[in-house]
């Protein structure tokens, strides 16, 4: 089998065009503020792409770039100001943060109604309880791509490789909500390759370049590669060995041009959703 390539860039463009059309009818511009502390290079790509996409879709978007020496108290003060600002609908605190700042403290400080990352424990709890709320952008983007690929999810065996707070866990919750039979694999999983081979829907979010080999992939599986890893040569590669996996999968996402652009489109979708909920009750 040779896999169909799921074009995340194209799906993201369509999603953003739909958001732009809805925003054009509103009497206000949804406000997004990204807070970046220091100069983590991976965050640089994300912030640049996001700024461009937000402006083009009609958002009132800005990035607050704080020095790497910012204290936790200073960051919390910035977040408090954004929480109180009525023009701000969405707040994203870019991760990772420098070592003197606890990520948990920053995440907990964001008003859950403005938490467009969906990382606040209230929103994570809503997701785990099957209640509506702001959902993390990357897993939400993956669900869009699975629908786009025509995946039949009800009763399907899904495996999520990775159990991080920001990708793996919420991903598993969304798949469960879509009636998949979900396995979560991680660094302590026994017989990892055999577990992976059972999956009809395979989502890799492990952060290890090309760790998933072709023979870990079931014939006809749908493979979603969340990983974004930069090689020594400066090239971006996913968590999946693409050519090997594509020889067995029914459909697969590339890196770049797969999940990454969907994360940004879903961030904008969440910002519009937060704005409508806040301003129109
Ligand atoms: N496309 C996008 O928009 C985004 C992409 N990413 C990318 O996704 C990837 C994952 O990110 P994130 O979830 O934040 O990463 P984390 O490092 O937080 O989590 C990695 C997970 O993978 C597991 N893991 C690590 N090594 C192994 C191994 N050898 N075998 C099995 N499991 C392993 C860890 O297990 P354990 O819990 O046991 O330690 C952990 O649960 C990265 O490449 C990141 O750059 C992230 C966010 C957005
Ligand atoms: N609070 C917070 N929320 C996040 O969602 C968050 C974060 N912090 N920290 C960093 C990670 C990483 N991340 C990316 C999103 C999109 C691309 C992206 O657009 N990638 C494109 C382009 C890559 C390129 O051209 O270099 C692609 O994969 O095609 C990359 C990386 C969001 N993250």
Automatic annotation (TrEMBL):
CDD domains named among the record's database cross-references:
NAD_bind_m-THF_DH_Cyclohyd (cd01080)
- What residues does the Tetrahydrofolate dehydrogenase/cyclohydrolase catalytic domain cover? 6-117
Query: Secretion signal: which residues?
Result: none
Could you name the domain of life of the organism this protein comes from? Bacteria
Q: Which residues form the Tetrahydrofolate dehydrogenase/cyclohydrolase NAD(P)-binding domain?
A: 136-276
List the SUPFAM superfamilies hit by this protein, alphabetically.
Aminoacid dehydrogenase-like, N-terminal domain, NAD(P)-binding Rossmann-fold domains
Q: Which reaction does it catalyse?
A: (6R)-5,10-methylene-5,6,7,8-tetrahydrofolate + NADP(+) = (6R)-5,10-methenyltetrahydrofolate + NADPH; (6R)-5,10-methenyltetrahydrofolate + H2O = (6R)-10-formyltetrahydrofolate + H(+)
Q: What does this protein do?
A: Catalyzes the oxidation of 5,10-methylenetetrahydrofolate to 5,10-methenyltetrahydrofolate and then the hydrolysis of 5,10-methenyltetrahydrofolate to 10-formyltetrahydrofolate.
The protein's name is: Bifunctional protein FolD
The opening ranks of the lineage are: Bacteria, Pseudomonadati, Pseudomonadota, Alphaproteobacteria, Acetobacterales
């Amino acid at each position: 089998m040779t896999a169909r390539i799921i074009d995340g860039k194209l799906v993201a463009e369509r999603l953003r065009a739909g958001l732009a059309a809805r925003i054009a009818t509103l009497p206000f511009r949804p406000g997004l503020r990204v807070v970046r502390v220091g100069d983590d290079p991976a965050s640089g790509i994300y912030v640049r792409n996001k700024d461009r996409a937000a402006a083009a879709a009609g958002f009132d978007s800005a990035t607050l770039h704080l020095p790497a020496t910012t204290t936790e108290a200073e960051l919390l003060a910035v977040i408090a100001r954004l929480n109180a600002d009525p023009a701000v609908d969405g707040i994203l605190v870019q991760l990772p943060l420098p070592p003197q700042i606890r990520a948990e403290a920053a995440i907990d400080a964001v008003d859950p109604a403005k938490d467009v990352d969906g990382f606040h424990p209230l929103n994570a709890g809503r997701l785990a309880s099957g209640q509506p709320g702001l959902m993390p952008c990357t897993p939400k983007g993956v669900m869009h791509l699975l629908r786009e690929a025509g995946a039949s999810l009800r009763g399907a065996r899904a495996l999520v490789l990775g159990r991080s707070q920001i990708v793996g866990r919420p991903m598993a919750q969304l798949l469960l909500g879509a009636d998949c039979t979900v396995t979560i694999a991680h660094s302590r999983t026994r017989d990892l390759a055999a577990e992976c081979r059972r999956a009809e829907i395979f989502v890799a979010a492990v952060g290890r370049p090309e760790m998933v080999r072709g023979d870990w992939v079931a014939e006809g599986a749908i493979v979603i590669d969340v990983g974004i890893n930069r090689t020594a040569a400066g090239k971006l590669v996913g968590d999946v060995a693409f050519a090997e996996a594509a020889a067995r999968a029914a459909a697969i996402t590339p890196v770049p041009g797969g999940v990454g652009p969907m994360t940004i489109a879903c961030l904008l979708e969440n910002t519009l959703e937060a704005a409508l909920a806040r301003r129109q009750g």
